Amino acid sequence: xxxxxxxxxxxxxxxxxxxxxxxxxxxxxxxxxxxxxxxxxxxxxxxxxxxxxxxxxxxxxxxxxxxxxxxxxxxxxxxxxxxxxxxxxxxxxxxxxxxxxxxxxxxxxxxxxxxxxxxxxxxxxxxxxxxxxxxxxxxxxxxxxxxxxxxxxxxxxxxxxxxxxxxxxxxxxxxxxxxxxxxxxxxxxxxxxxxxxxxxxxxxxxxxxxxxxxxxxxxxxxxxxxxxxxxxxxxxxxxxxxxxxxxxxxxxxxxxxxxxxxxxxxxxxxxxxxxxxxxxxxxxxxxxxxxxxxxxxxxxxxxxxxxxxxxxxxxxxxxxxxxxxxxxxxxxxxxxxxxxxxxxxxxxxxxxxxxxxxxxxxxxxxxxxxxxxxxxxxxxxxxxxxxxxxxxxxxxxxxxxxxxxxxxxxxxxxxxxxxxxxxxxxxxxxxxxxxx
Length: 436
Fold this sequence. Notes:
With about 425 residues, the protein is of the alpha/beta class. It is about 30% helix and about 25% strand. Among the domains are: about 5-35 and about 220-280 and about 390-435, FAD/NAD(P)-binding domain, CATH 3.50.50.60; about 100-190, no CATH class. α4 crosses α7 (about 170-185), α5 (about 140-145) runs antiparallel to α6 and α5 packs across α7 (about 170-185). The longest helix has 16 residues, at about 110-125.
């Protein structure tokens, strides 16, 4: 096949992976990114001399595509692994949740409820395919196996923590995907949880990936938000973006589905309607650099719905604090629907609200221990896996000749992790290369 000029629209990990794969096939590739640096959800913030990821990310041992990439770009020896601890907070005190004995001591549920809950998790993690779970809501499936009491006291608060008011729309396949990913982080007969990270965070990964793309001949154009996408008069695709307009033989959109619907008015009405109907989750995530740590666990599950954030991620329980200027790093996310007004709140109000929540959870928390605070937000973290979702996913080929879409909307039964994103790009590549 003769080399073609491709445009990859969107420079997150999905777009970076597609650009690399297309370049390896001998095509000329231009990657257009709206921000001043590629990376999307894995780009960093800078707090004084400390730089780390805007949103929390970890590597698990089953992340084969990601680990292969790190080897390819020369970062395999920079991966660090560690055991992590987990806590549980239901509104009164913190409880460890690291093994079967901790689990049996949880005060929120009786023994029968705990046994049924454990069976639900093991059974769910053992399923190889979640397609048949799409016909049930998450509530139906979890209630049937775990029981009504376990659903009311544990599953429902956790689902609302992740989905907000979208919780009733989620299928059982959604929670199955979550179980599969995190069960994959547990190694050995004792199933001890192992997470990894790259020294320097994803800033180092993106810099190395960008250099690798340059070596492959990929043209990276930043500060170039796409304004319109239209079919060319004699075939191909015309892309208008801030600062210019270019013609390409072919183009692939990696935006969230609603953005793709707005960017290309030439899509059929049916396509645009389908893309706009896909429900997305957004997130507001506060990062705090602290002089003192909190509970000492990487992950604290929260079922107390009065708190403004939905989880506590103490990244410094995993990451060497020397990389964080000797400080502790905590993430406080709140997941909301993509159109939730909370995404537009002022940073100062969000930080004040979340700090008040920390005082409730940790009575000895002192606001004077905050070295720096940062608020990151996005309306499009991942689509909500609604019932029968795989029957309605948008195809890779669009109604516009030579225009394709590979986006998070096609992550059926997966998560929005870097690993799943990279696998999606690799899985869709043959459809991009196939001539009509």
